[in-house]
Input
Amino acid sequence: VFSGNDAISDSQLRAITVSKRKGLFSFITDNDNYAEGLQINDKIAIEKHYKDNGYFDALVLSHVGQLSRDNKEITLSYSIFEGQRYSLGEIEVFGDSKELDFNKIRESIPLSKGDFFNQSKIQEVANTLQKEVLSKGLSLVKVEVNTKKDRGNATVDLNVTFSDKKRMFVEKIVIRGNSQTLDRVIRREFDLIEGDAFNPIMLRKTEEKLRATGFFKKVFVKICRILGYE
Output
């Protein structure tokens, strides 16, 4: 049972909740058996659905399970605050890194002024941008997306910030535990060499290639920071 939902129908909300009503195929899943944890997951799913459809302030105010008189069934009730629907306002990109072209980054962001606010898409954009700066060797640049709500105009401004810290480089590569072949054979699998900008993505690829050689039972990669770097 849902209350307070005017913009999104009961059927839409039932479709995205984890808890399900008992039906013909109930033997396949346990999601029609009551569990408090499932109701918490329902709350998360409902709020996410609203926030992905423009309802920036949406909340599940309460979620309650009420047992029937014959103790056989439980009615799940969700009280929802929808709030108003928001569109994106200004989308600004800035930072203190001299190695990034912020105009090009802004053009690459698949979000436009006037789009309905979508929390998941915004998070996807942040994750994609973070991967891009890592691929450039800027391992200490942190991408943050901050929101500024304008209730009067029903808009949410986005500020995408690239916080640049010190850049790290690969100073030394040390190989231990290799009794199967020469170290230079192992080094041929590395996508990084001494002096390269540190790139976690390339390091992960190197680790995968070392495992794929079949030389070793286990491969461990440990990163040691130089004292004083943050």
Remarks:
- Confidence is low (pLDDT under 50) at residues 24-32.
